[in-house]
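User: I'm new to structure prediction. If I give you an amino acid sequence, what do you actually give back? Let's try with this one:
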Amino acid sequence: MSELSWKDSIGHFLKEAGSAAPTPGGGSISALAAALGAAMTSMTANLSQGEKFAHIHEQITEVIRSMENLTARCEELMVADIRSFEQYMAALKLPKETDEEKRYRTHSLQTAVIAAIEVPLRLLEVSRDGLSHAYRIVEASNKNVISDLGIGAILFEAAAQSALLTVDINLASLKDLDVKQSYEAKTAALMREIAQIKEQTLMIVRSRITG
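Assistant: Good question. You get back a string of structure tokens that encode the predicted 3D arrangement of the chain. For your 211 residues, that looks like this:
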């Protein structure tokens, strides 16, 4: 399969994702969801400029710049997710006739599993960072597009929840229990933080919609 990028059409991406090919898979979709969250947050920030919003100009500028960086990170993670899956499939195909081949194959599979965990774990961090930036402008950004900021927050959390499932399915194949527990603790802490920021953000979004 040819390498996907943000330059592909939405139709092409969806066709590839819905096909029998294993990539792009859940990790790639999670990265796209986070990028959409960044787009909604960026749009809200871009529509919160001018004299009326002069008092938050620095915050708005920072959020726009941060969303550009997050979008780039999402594309990198989409590509990395596809590569990590390909690495795992290559390891599965390694010979296992001799003891040495078995040891090498097992080592290669565990290395591939760790790579397949690290990518969605980084996406959890991207989602947390995106939500943090959205929260910083939720009180003062343009009320006319505040629902879009809320949509961005929901998409960031959806990306994180999706990425977490990718982490979990790969953790099930990890043999080192200490490393496994370390990953579980890190993802649990990130998910708690993500849930808290999303709820705080949406509470303010809803109060501004009805207020």
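You can read the tokens as a compact description of the fold. Here is one thing that stands out. The mean pLDDT is 93.
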